[in-house]
Amino acid sequence: MVERRSVWRMSIVTDEKSYETLMAELQECVGRLEAGSLGVEEALSLFEKGVGLSKEARQRLEGLEGRLERLLADGQVESLKVEETQ
Q: Which domain covers residue 16, as residue numbers?
């Protein structure tokens, strides 16, 4: 039974988009919005998608941070935070 749970969990993880994929999709949205050739409705829809991608990317990055901290929990690293860049 435990083995089946592991397989199931692995399938969930593989369905998630990688941080890099999320950021690439977000950059695509930003590029289209910056081009300025969209109608108001389409621009708003794309903006909403971008906000969602941004939130999902932040959550994904925070999850990766947590995994890294757990891996290094043997006392070598007290805390590791990824700083935002603009």
A: 12-71
